[in-house]
Amino acid sequence: MKILLIDECAWGIRALEAALVPLAVPTAGASSNDAALKALIRGGVGLVVLALGRPGADRLEVVRYMRRLGPMRCIPVITVSERRYLPGFVTEAAELEVADVLTTPLDPQALRFKARYLLTVHGRCGTDHPSCS
Predict the structure, then answer these.
(1) Which helix (DSSP H) or strand (DSSP E) does residue 13 occupy?
(2) CA-CA distance, 84 to 104, in Å (whole number)?
(3) How far lies 36's CA from each of 88, 91, 113, in Å?
(4) pLDDT digits (tens, 9 = 90+) for 31-61
(5) How crowded is the C-beta side of 37, counted as CA atoms within 13 Å?
(6) Distance from C-alpha of 32 to C-alpha of 9, rounded to nearest angstrom
């Protein structure tokens, strides 16, 4: 299982990769919603870390898509935002069952802790869970 890192900026993807290196889990980067969806469709993703990016970019579109499709429905998502909370974002994130909302400056140790836990739980449940079919 790999971690899919979604950020519109290449340096953001590299920063997330650097924070997750101690986990020794493969990562894949995507700098657009289309690239992220293609990576998800190819499979093998056990966790998504989604940087919300600039205002007006609808990054939650990826999560909405995931929640509509079988096995992708159960992949946990951690969001990272430069802003404390966007108006209405927390409510929508909860409705989409986002696992966690982190803000910057990002604590790499906290990200690793949450990522390790979510990968373990997702690996234990897998796609055999009734809600994933």
Answers:
(1) helix 10-20
(2) 8
(3) 23, 23, 23
(4) 999 999 999 999 999 999 999 876 555 778 9
(5) 14
(6) 9
- At residue 81, the pLDDT reads 83
pTM of the model: 0.89
Q: Identify the structural domains of the chain with CATH numbers, from first to last.
A: 2-125 (3.40.50.2300)
Position 100, amino acid = D
Strand arrangement, sheet containing 2-6: 27-30, 2-6, 45-51, 77-81, 100-103
Residue bearing tokens 């929508």: 92
CA angle 114–16–43, rounded 5-degree value: 75
Mean pLDDT of 68-81: 89
3-state secondary structure of 100: strand
Residue 46: other Cβ atoms inside 10 A = 21
Q: Do 40 and 17 form a contact (C-beta atoms < 8 A)? A: no
Q: Are 7 and 51 in contact (CB under 8 A)?
A: yes
CA distances from 41 to 1, 50, 98, 108, 124 (A): 14, 16, 19, 28, 21
